[in-house]
Amino acid sequence: MGGIKPPSFRGGGSVGRTVLMISGVLGLIVVASISVSSCSVTVESGYMGIKTTKFGPNPGVQKDELGPGFHWEGIGEKIRTYQTLQRTYSYTREPNADGRENEEIMFSDVLGLPMTADVALTFKVREDRAADLYATWRQEFDAFIDGPLRTSVRAAIARETEKLPVACNAQQSSVPVVAPAAALGAPIAPVGTQDAEDCPGQLIGPGRQIVLQRAMQALQREWASQGLDIIRMEWVGSIRYPESVVTAIQSRTTAEQNTRAALERVNLERANAEARIAQARGQAEANRLLAESIRSNPEVVRLREVERTLGVCPLDAETCVVGSGIDVSALIASRNAASGADR
């Protein structure tokens, strides 16, 4: 009996084998999970997968894009994703959600004056051309946006801004030229007519939007064949002009305002002078008619003397009109009778 083991120890070997088997299965599951995660790529909705291979009959970028779903990566294979959703990227001086570094767009005007601005670009990669786009530039999507695409945007804008000045005559003079009036009644040329004739466009004002639209059209022609649709391009804020240009423009604006104020004063004085001339002409015409009336009827002078004598009109009155029914002789007789009674 001393050689017989207690019943509690008889199943010890089977329990150990069971634990070992469970541990082995768990280990295989972990290894399989690691292998699956490291050898597969999930392409999300709104993206396309681009596969590159190092081996096989056709190494390099594969022309067929991989749609959303779960895809295996074999030995020597790499799957990258390109976003095919419409996206807006802002190239700005200050850090933003798109980039932490300075990405402002630099360009110059027709005189070579340097300027910078922030630009927002809206674009979309076509699903059937994502592989072609990657095959051309061989860059990850974010690197492509910050590299070749930004360079193309800057070049397109610069080609258009180099055709226009910042502002008409802003660098040559800060005082506008106004054509002097040849005479008092001659029309005065409005401020800014020389700019309209000599300068068809400028970056300050509507010209900045025209430049951007032309640059966007050039980008659309450039990238359409590569599978990238340029949808919209906009200025973010205003263009940052050189300080010397800003000062000249402000001086010019002040001078134009002063000139307009002076022209308004001249026009007011002219209107007052014309009113005085019209009044003088009216008075002259009245005097002429009075003189003709006196010449044609000498008794008018006698009537005026009677009127002043009787107090009908003030002595200092220049003109006094008495109704035609008044008898001048009766007025004189009445005056004489009044004089005799006083004596």
TrEMBL record:
Residues forming coiled coils: 256-283
Band domain boundaries: 42-159, 208-283
Keyword tags: Coiled coil
UniProt keyword Coiled coil present: yes
PANTHER family in the record: MODULATOR OF FTSH PROTEASE HFLC
Identification of the protein by name: Band 7 domain-containing protein
